[in-house]
Amino acid sequence: EALVQHDERIRTFVRRQVVLGAGDGDRGDDGDAERSADLEGGVAEARREPGLVLLDACDILVAGAEEVAPLDTRKALAMLIEAREAAGWAGDNRRSADTGHRAAAFPLSDDPTTRFLADLLVGVGKLYEGEAAAALPLVRDVVARADDFDEPSWVTWAATGAQGLGDEDRASEL
Known about the structure:
Elements: H1 2-16, H2 32-46, H3 53-68, H4 73-90, H5 93-105, H6 112-128, H7 132-145, H8 152-164, H9 168-173
């Protein structure tokens, strides 16, 4: 039963994280449906090895994020958040930390949403790696900005950051 639940989570990740091209986001004309089918096929193939399903999803999302980053940094960062989630469920701290390192390598953005996602990945990642001095300013800022967003996984990670700061009240509020 646990494998079925994990498999369904992966399918959900993959369906949500279709890599959009540089166009207007019209998935009908730019091959995105084919890429989505390829990703879903890869997940189905990974089901034969239960321990790899979540890690494969993480790797698929990271590869997709790297592919889309030059075209859409915000989408790439959203994919890295999902990759971090998969790595966390699989208990793979190395892959989880890697998402923050990758986010830090992307160019800085003036877009508030893109900046929030980057700061979230980098700040919470540094907290998990024990780099409190570098993490605290970023995490405090992310926690303060979290009310501006309604994407559940982003807010959940911001709440995790609040917990890392020792602010259980704010974490519960989020």
